[in-house]
Hints:
Blueprint: E1 34-38, E2 41-49, E3 57-68, H1 80-85, E4 87-93, H2 103-114, H3 119-150, H4 153-177, H5 193-222, H6 231-248, H7 260-278, E5 284-288, H8 290-317, H9 326-358, E6 362-367, E7 374-385, H10 392-401, H11 405-410, E8 413-424, H12 426-432, E9 438-446, E10 458-465, E11 470-477, E12 480-490, E13 499-506, E14 509-514
Antiparallel strand pairs: 1-2, 2-9, 3-8, 3-12, 4-9, 5-6, 6-7, 7-8, 10-11, 12-13, 13-14
Amino acid sequence: xxxxxxxxxxxxxxxxxxxxxxDVRAAVIPVPKWERHDRxxxxxxxxxxxxxxxAAADRVWEAFYFLPESFRLDATSYAKGELLSDIRSYFxxxxxxxxxxxxxxxARDLAGKLTSxxxxxxxxxxxxFGCSVRSAIMEDAQEVIDVAATGDEKCLTALLGDFxxxxxxxxxxxxxxLGPLALRTASFERADPEVAKAVSWVDEYLSRVLEISLxxxxxxxxxSEGGNGLAPTAIAAAVDEARYRQSxxxxxVSLADGSVHDLEQVERRQHAxxxxxxxxxxxxxxxxxxxxxxxxxxxxxxxxxxxxxxVVIAVLYxxxxxxxxxxxxAAVVVVAYMGKDRLKAILQSVFDSLVAARYPxxxxxxxxxxxxxxxxxxxxRAGFVEPDDLPDGVDILRSVAYRDRLSELxxxxxxxxxxxxxxxxxxxxxTKAPGFPALTDVMRVDISRWLTHTDDAKRTVTFADPGAGExxxxxxxxAYDVIVVYRFTDSNAPDAAWNAVRVVVxxxxxxxxxxxxxx
Length: 519
């Protein structure tokens, strides 16, 4: 496989008591972090920072997926086109960071700037500000959840109180400073109706984000040893946000006695608000399949060379005008055609290897919507590789991931390789998108095809109980391990450590994403 590592080092490692090599221990905790997006999609977010010193920003993502033999996936059953269509990337801006405590000051500063903007510019800035506040709410809520998991009651009580005060204060100040009656634009003496709608939708979205965050906090706190009655406080704050939306916005509100249709409308409204607010961050991605184009051209050249060979042989050694030699000429034509057919196949195989080495499978450009401003260029390769092609660090981590020695000896698997290099245009980022600190590549892997040949999710199995001396039946889940070994490097640290996760799947989809120690 072109692009793989050819360097090899002796495979001797210091192994700790828990079986993890000392020099790859840090790699067991994966960064970036894989997550279960839904039943059939894995997701990982790759953050591409804009260098402060203006240096080149070239980053490389590389991953090896160890797929159980039961999946029946290899280069013959999993076409390159299908493989690449199952790996999708969505590029977006990383919104500027803001602290909840600073929302009021930032909102007043923004309101002053918007008085000289057009309505479209005002809507764009409101969306962007809403995205920054959303991130602040979710980050601070996650901090509360992390502390709740430790069981530290004193710290949790203080942190939860700070979060409730800061989050409610942030939204209250936004509603006061950036409300539809407070904003004016360059084109209207009074509030513009489109701006008023945008203000209302962003406010409704942030209220829903805060409610969900508070529900998550209440759920974790309620089961935490240090919760001690703190969950009702978070629940009350979540209910307050629902009541606020019920009295101030036109969107549906979830009710305990509501119908399934009503709850569907709530979810549909939530997704619409999210798409509206976050649309300001999304970028255009244009994919060019240079590999396929080049492959068609060289295959056509191979066919032309082979046909020329057949014609030359027939002309030089055949004599169709001599009646007595007609049979000889026919034999020459047949032999020439046979040679032409084999020559074409050989040339196509050689040319395929040359094209694969020279051209990526896909090349894309990432640009700002409705403009020609390119912010990044991406080259991508994917395919199946042999165990001997694995870099040493990958091989070591794969060995660590086996659940036991028997699994290591008995498991047979195919290895799927994926590599993506991203070259950011830092000058364009600084001049065309100066307010954004980074780009995020949200990559999703669709595993639907992987599960086609798996066993039923649950099987009824009969066992013999040696203690009771009888037979019994049990429904057992049939699960499979997919080990993903990966790393995300840049030009300043090309030899960064490999990371790994265990993805447990069944015929029904992804069950969980876990660390290597998970059994």
